[in-house]
Amino acid sequence: MSDFDLASYRFELPENQIAAYPRSDRTAARLMVVDKTQKIITHHTVADLPGLVTEPTLFVANNTKVFKARLNGYRPETGGKVEFFLLKRLHEKIWQGLMKTGRRIEPGFVFHIGDPNTPQFAQAKVIERIEDTSTGPQFIAEFSTDPVSADLGQVPLPPYILARRSGGEILPDEIDAYNTVYAKGTHATGSVAAPTAGRHFTQSLLGRLQQQGHTWAELTLHVGIGTFKPVSVADIRQHVMHPEYAELSWDVANLINTSKTIARPVCAIGTTSARTLEGVSAKTPRNRDHQNERVQPRQNQWVQPHQGDVNLFVYPGFQWQVVDQLWTNFHLPESTLLMMISSFIGDRHFTLDIYNQAVREGYQFFSYGDVMWIR
């Protein structure tokens, strides 16, 4: 099988190694350090990180904030279950999203959320159906009150976490546990899934890194529903990424360009940060060295400030321009994220060896799991 075959990204993962709950101490997570050049793997904890960074490094993290996007509602005439998954606010009380119910949904469909005898109640009416081949049909609904401001929703935990919990329980402080400690956002914008690699950092750990002379910078990529979309084509090159909104400021762009100019390593905290940096770099004007047939940054500009969508799909063969190191959780088999990791490491077979070793060593996987640092 080749690097472009979907089946090439399978590995066996015992269900008991899927982390179901967050650790109370974020830095207690296990840390696998991978030297991708020498193919050396060592085992540590996140708390060890300051002692493992050997040169001044620029860490770039995604500061998006997850909001309570999953609404559990019901049909008032039958009590039948209805789920509305918020994706985008269009107006004060009008949202676009995905729906689940036992019947076909058309404009005019009405559903309720919460007990009508309590303040946490809303009526909603579907006003438009939008066909979308990448996600399935989406719907625009008008609510009697803004469901996010009224705190009517639940934390949009991934299905693989809910499946490991009795009754799919949500913890009282789940929204704080699921978000990073540096998350920023408003009710109007945010993510439907967390950039979970950044969950391992605490303010104390950030302080220790900065005291050692390392630099911390933040960008924003609002993780969309495309993060849950599986690859369904046998040839991964045919997969289409869902666009996600990203922001990179002038200050952070300058930090990145300066770091690349002086050969200071740029470490992306999470695949969302890596996708943003490489996606923005792909949109940045470049010069071609015709003699050596290489593309070079124009006037030391690896990236420029950016506000807009990014939909970069990174798989083996991609030419990385910005990211020198990658800090990332362990991902699903056959996922676009695993394909990105394989591309960054530069060897699919070694990537799968790493994952198989993580399984043998008992690492915890996915959103609430352990972490890997590739350098």
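(ticket continues) Second input and output from the same batch:
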Amino acid sequence: MRPVLILTAGYGEGHNAAARGLHTACQQLGIESEIADPFTAMGASYDRSRRDYLWLINTAPHVWAFFFGLIDRFPLVEFSLPLLSRVEQQLAELLAEKQPRAVVSVYPAYSYLIAKLFPSGRPFTLHTVVTDSITINRVWHRAPSDTYIVANAATGDVMREQGVPAARIHELGFPVPPRFAADRPERPDPRDGARVLFMINAAKDTAPDVVARLLLMRRIHLTVTVGRDEELRARIEKAAAGRPIEIHGWTPHMPELLMTHHILIGKAGGAAVQETIAAQTPMLITQVVPGQEEGNAQLLFDHACGAHCPTPDALAGQIDWLFANGAREWRRWHDNIRALSRPDAALQIARFVSGR
């Protein structure tokens, strides 16, 4: 059986997270699939461009917002295709070798390269998984794709307004890990205290201040993830000053952590927001990158299951409010986010793209 080929790129974690979630779902269903990143053909310049991208969105987000707007309004990707000749060659060789029945792109550049490689028609179906919500850059759909798979109805509405044919838009959800759809661990009663998960993936300089402030609160269980950053771990331990705290480095158990906590604190990245929705865990957002992340945050705000809390005091105040009066407001937020949740989306998408 010809495989499903999933194309990703390392510009932001949302793309890779979507690719991994879909690949895992394919494996679970017995569908042959493979993840590939043809941008690796760029070698050292790829690593440098990814570092520059992360530096830009974290240190000069409004500059990135300007470029985001330019990419939306003008065909800059089309003009830059000659610079991606090595990526194009790698992609052509990959497609010739794998002979996929379906290609799933979770990064918008691939549909442009595929259109260039196959000007007269493709020997496979092409599906584009849009990893953003609501603030959809037109770069996602200026090149042709058989379908566009979106995470929610609001995003589908935006793309229809932008001129994408309704028949090509499929609101199947975001491909979070299928573990979110398996037996869910029991979440402790919120009346016994707030279990707060602080996922540090940006603003590392201010993270110790957040930890110190939250640990002043009564009846809070604080869990912090620091990834592979041992220097950050040391700073968090120092900020805790001997008070009880649970710290994780890189962990494969993020779904379980999300599902057993009451609140996620973090940045409004596409994967983080979609996984917290799958976990049915409301979110307090500390940072929103202008442009692509605004829609992710708006999705939570519009459905009253998240809030923007840019300071440690704002976080503490919001948590106090949510868990007052027997956690009444938290329960309301939980009901709202549960209505958005599609934890089996990866399985549904895998069936759809494979023709199951």
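Agent notes: Residues 193 and 219 are 5 Å apart (CA to CA). The chain has a mean pLDDT of 94. Closing as not reproducible unless the customer responds.
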